[in-house]
Amino acid sequence: MSLDERLHLSVLSKRANCILGLYKAILSSILITVKAHHITVRVGKLPCGTWYFEIPFYSSSQDNNNVVWNLEGSTIQVKRSHYPPQTHFVLSADGNAVALFGKLLRHLTSSHSIQNCFECKFYAIPDGVISQLESNYIYDKIDIGNDRLEGVTPEDLRFLLEHLRAKVLRLNVECLPISIYKYEKHGDKDSLIQKLIIGSYSWVNFAELPSIRVISIWREGLHQMNTILKSWIAGKNRQMEIGDFELGKYSERNREIIFTGVESDTTSLTTAERNAFLSSESHFPNIKALRDIVALDITREEDWLRATVIEATTGPSSQPTQKMFVMVWSDANLRTIGRIVD
């Protein structure tokens, strides 16, 4: 059957969808976009996709040409339009677009396998929308807050950081009510997030960062950077292997503030090894744009594991911006710079 035929059958009844779920079809991608007035789900080969689902937050008017779908026992009015190569579906939310979004997402993933790309982009955070995301898939990227978003709750942060799997999670949010998020590691289970990029950081506990291998933070203060280094030396923040931190406008006093109470030595990395690390992450600045590079080594007290802290400036010389990178001497990083060869 074609994908359109499978979709038509799957929305007839719960039983039909269960049967199709035994023989899942492959979808190349799902792209979810959440805005203030509607949620869209684009399915199929991007950028156009095969299906385009739109769920407005307002109640759409009834149309005699609407078809009826059954999603998790709910009867849904759907307006269907065809704009080759894409089919556009507008789902009537009947006042609860967030719940309908969750039903649609679960329906799609119950009878299809996502092959390549599963991404989410949030320009708004309607109440309850975060918890509707499907937790059985690995998202390529979850991007929340092009501009800083308010309205994210402590429960939203916990769901994102402890229950979803993502290669990249970008958070530019304010947590309301204002509180400091406390990460809870569940036993020996590896972190579900591979890379965390933080914009607004009012909710971050710098002494105990989320247990994630790669952490990038924009425009944090110098004292927070000092806290991160001291905590790592004391045995906390131990899951972080790569750090990327923007410190704002360059000042000669910055290093003094950052390394207050932190013992450091001249790095034993060669220039080639340092440059190999600085070229290893796609979100790092182009190494050709970095200048005034200084590298120092720090040591974790309990096991003498080293980390190299690299300072650099970037941007126009009239307004230089200071960057700081942390490379923990983990096996993965030593392979990256060529010290370990398999």
TrEMBL record:
The protein, known as: F-box associated domain-containing protein
Gene source species: Caenorhabditis nigoni
GN (gene name): Cnig_chr_I.g3304
